[in-house]
Amino acid sequence: MENIYDKTFESLEEYFLSLNEKKFKANQLYSWLYDKKIKSFDEITDIKKPIIERLKEDFTIGDIKLVNVEKDELVNKYLFELNDNEHVESVLMRHDYGTSVCVSSQVGCNMGCKFCESGRRKKVRNLTSGEMTEQILKIEEDIKEKVTHVVIMGIGEPFDNYENVTNFIKIINHAKGLAIGSRHITLSTCGIAPKIREFASFPYQVNLALSLHAPNDELRNKIMPINKAYPLKEVMNALKYYYKETNRRITFEYIMLDNINDSEDNAKELCKLLKGFNCYINLIPYNETNNIDFKRTKKDKILKFYDIIKKNDMNVTIRKEFGSNISAACGQLRSKKEDLWNHFI
Ligand code: SAH
Q1: Is 109 assigned a catalytic role?
Q2: Which candidate in 113, 116, 190, 330 is catalytic?
Q3: Among 10, 41, 97, 235, which has the minimal tally of Cβ within 10 Å of its Cβ?
């Protein structure tokens, strides 16, 4: 059975039309789901009985179950169980500007970035748009507050699950859905060039981030296998096209990996690569994992790297750290329950 949270507003309108009902029912149903947060279709009072019965035949209300929460001062990490017994994690972060949720988009990930814990398990399947939407709904229910920002930076490569991810954005952005402003939604990709181009015509003003992590192909090939399929030139051309079409500034994420990509020459190369491109550069202190091949660059070296970029008049920031105490930081999320995982590695 289909999950009702998979439905975009428009597809729900079509559904009601197909039943010879007024499409306005989509409006009513969306407010029951996202405003009144019903758990059963029987709670609906303004739609007549036969239609409610039909909804019950056609849809479930929700497919995922919250099974564990770990709470730190500013961060909560959530473990969800999916209805095929798979698991994903999401993270809630409290900022001064609001609360943001880092959503997972796949069970496992096929991109194989060497430094990332989430990719240690191959992709098992894509998450549906409903499973992504529910991560936010369940977190809102837990904290009894509205989530204001969403980053699609959890487990998975969102552009390897394009349709569900874009439907998810439509659902959470809809005024009758979760009403999360498009400028408060950020999608992060490892650089699937054709999808970046396709995303240029997705008519929602969301933010795009690219996981760059290396300023040249030789190095990027070593740590991010996707670079062999879409080398830097191809990715940069796709991003330039995206910028031309949308006029939206792209964020380049750059993890600082000790003695791998953090030399002064690397900083200069990075400036050369991004020169003239209206963008933001976000330097990310690496979150160490069980993988001993990668260590975090020391603070003073990060600052030196930062200074070189700054002197080149580029917009650069160093990412504030979140959640490493409870392994909830970038690249530390896993798609297996911890106890199972321990046997796995
Ligand atoms: N597949 C997408 C989104 C998921 S990863 C992407 O590649 O962008 C989200 C971000 O966390 C990416 O920039 C990723 O490279 C980064 N990341 C992965 N492992 C990390 C780690 N251990 N420490 C810090 N950032 C990490």
Answers
A1: no
A2: 330
A3: 97
Our answer on whether the CB atom of 12 is closer than 6 Å to any ligand 1 atom is: no
End-to-end CA distance of the chain: 35
Output the DSSP codes for 239-257: HHHHHHHH-PPEEEEEEEB
13 tagged catalytic:
no
Among 116, 251, 280, 295, residue to substitute to test ligand 1 (most atoms within 8 Å of Cβ): 116
Cβ neighbours for 197, distance < 8 A, ≥ 6 positions apart: 238, 241, 242
What is the C-alpha separation between 163 and 167, in angstroms, rounded? 6
pTM as predicted? 0.94
Residue 191 CA to residue 27 CA, distance in Å, equals: 36
Nearest CA among 58, 60, 80 for reference residue 69: 80
292-304 residue pLDDT tens: 899 999 999 999 9
Residue 340: which pLDDT band, with cuts at 50, 70 and 90?
Answer: very low
Contacts of 4 (CB under 8 A, 6+ apart): 29, 33, 55, 59, 60, 61, 62, 130
Q: Which amino acid is at 21?
A: E
